[in-house]
């Protein structure tokens, strides 16, 4: 884990309200595991005081002609403007400074046996799945099922397809791909074949439905949970959830930041969101 002040290389609005930020990150990729996240603080503003958590979308290296920089390694973050912190981030430009803490948390378990992998993303939940798919597709078939409310919220399809990941898009309004919920597409795919594992990220109601579907087909599931975080390292206990088997007599509390953000679905008490 590193805490470093770094330079924004670019901050592009890729769809209304959705941004891709690229920042310099020396030696960061060596430590990063797919599915981990970082905590970001915008430097030029005293508020908001707390950092904001973002899953790392991907890492890369700038071409040799990009000289004059302290390093050529970078990370990219996909984010949606939802409040004060992300609104401030959206106003940043190349050359601005941010403070980054990470990599943090536990990512996806990539040693999950042989066989196909199905990635399921809901909207901005696509962010932690790119590096996961990019790694797994080297040795096995990987499909991405990407659901969103409308075509403007369908993100990063081209990046996945360039890696050889077959992508299926569904939108609530039918403006892109098939009309309907991504969970319906997952059921159709599981009817055709049973993969080694499903990996998913998105809104909790979507993940609860995916958990139910995977249980019905006896398919193991890993989920990346989203949560409000104050510290990112398990100290503030602001992102506590109930683990499987939790009760008042035998409590089992998990922190999304330290125990997650990726969990095997069997380790989560899904009734807490019913």
Please tell me about this protein's structure.
With 274 residues, the chain is of the alpha/beta class. The chain contains five helices and 15 strands. It has helices spanning 84-90, 129-136, 157-162, 182-192, 204-217, and strands at 2-15, 18-24, 37-42, 52-61, 73-80, 97-104, 117-122, 142-148, 166-171, 178-179, 197-201, 221-224, 240-242, 253-255, 262-264. It has a seven-stranded mixed beta sheet, with helices on both faces. Helix 4 runs parallel beside helix 5. It is globular.
Question: Layout of SSEs?
Answer:
Layout lengths: L1 E14 L2 E7 L12 E6 L9 E10 L11 E8 L3 H7 L6 E8 L12 E6 L6 H8 L5 E7 L8 H6 L3 E6 L6 E2 L2 H11 L4 E5 L2 H14 L3 E4 L15 E3 L10 E3 L6 E3 L10
Parallel strand pairs: 7-8, 7-11, 8-9, 9-10, 11-12
Antiparallel strand pairs: 1-2, 1-6, 2-5, 3-4, 3-6, 4-5, 12-15, 13-14
Instruction: State Rg.
Output: 18 Å
Structural class determined from secondary elements: alpha/beta
Main sheet: strand order: 10-9-8-7-11-12-15
* CATH architecture designation of the largest domain: 3-Layer(aba) Sandwich
**Multimeric status of the protein:** single chain
Proportion of strand residues: 25-35%
Assign the CATH class of the largest domain.
Alpha Beta
Provide mean pLDDT, rounded: 92
Q: Give the distance, in angstroms, between the N- and C-terminal Cα atoms.
A: 35 Å
User: Structurally, how many domains make up the residues?
Assistant: 2
Jot down its keywords.
274 residues, alpha/beta, Elongation Factor Tu (Ef-tu), domain 3, Rossmann fold, 2 domains, 7-stranded mixed sheet, 6-stranded antiparallel beta barrel, 15 strands, 34% strand
């Amino acid at each position: 884990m590193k805490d470093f002040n770094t330079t924004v290389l670019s901050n592009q609005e890729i769809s209304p309200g959705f941004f891709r930020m690229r920042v310099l990150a020396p030696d960061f990729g060596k430590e990063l595991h797919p599915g981990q996240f970082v905590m970001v603080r915008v430097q030029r503003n005293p508020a908001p005081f707390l950092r904001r958590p973002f899953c790392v979308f991907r890492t890369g290296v700038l071409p040799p002609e990009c000289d004059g920089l302290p390093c050529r390694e970078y990370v990219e973050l996909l984010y949606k403007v939802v409040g004060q912190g992300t609104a401030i981030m959206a106003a940043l430009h190349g050359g601005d400074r941010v403070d980054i803490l990470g990599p943090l948390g536990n990512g996806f378990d990539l040693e999950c046996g042989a066989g196909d992998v199905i990635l399921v993303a809901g909207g901005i939940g696509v962010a932690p799945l790119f590096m996961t798919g990019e790694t797994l597709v080297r040795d096995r078939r990987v499909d991405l099922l990407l659901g969103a409310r409308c075509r403007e919220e369908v993100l990063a399809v081209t990046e996945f397809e360039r890696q050889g990941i077959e992508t299926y898009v569904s939108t609530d309004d039918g403006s892109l791909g098939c009309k309907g919920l991504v969970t319906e597409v997952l059921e159709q795919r599981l009817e055709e074949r049973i993969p080694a594992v499903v990996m998913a990220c998105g809104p909790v109601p979507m993940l609860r439905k995916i958990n139910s579907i995977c249980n019905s087909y006896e398919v193991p599931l890993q989920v990346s949970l989203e949560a409000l975080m104050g510290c990112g390292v398990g100290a503030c206990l602001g992102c506590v959830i109930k683990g499987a088997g939790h009760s008042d007599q035998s409590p089992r509390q998990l922190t999304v930041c330290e125990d997650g953000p990726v969990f095997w679905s069997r380790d989560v008490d899904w009734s807490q969101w019913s």
